[in-house]
Design brief:
The chain is α+β, with helices and mostly antiparallel strands and 75 residues long. It has helices at 6-20, 22-25, 33-39, 45-57; strands at 31-32, 61-63, 68-71. It has 4 helices and 3 strands; from the N terminus they run ααβααββ.
């Protein structure tokens, strides 16, 4: 990610995840991106996974070795 735009990209990623209500969907426990996409009725699990991976790299969500996303203190 280009350092000059990283704050903008982070804020847009948080905005998108908030609009999709991903944090609420994870309240029942860790889920994979495909499980989340199905729960949220989204067609593109791969796009959701890319955004969640980015947010996991910023410690906003956690990603297990099995590929399941879960809450952190920030989420």
């Amino acid at each position: 990610v280009f350092p000059k735009y990283s704050g903008f990209i982070l804020s847009r990623a948080i905005y998108a995840i908030t609009r999709l209500k991903v944090a609420e969907a994870l309240n029942s426990g860790p889920l994979s991106s495909s499980e989340l996409a199905k729960k949220l009725q989204l067609q593109h699990a791969s796009g959701l996974e890319r955004v969640l991976n980015f947010l996991a790299s910023k410690s906003i969500f956690a990603k297990s070795e099995a590929g399941h996303f879960s809450h952190t203190k920030l989420s």
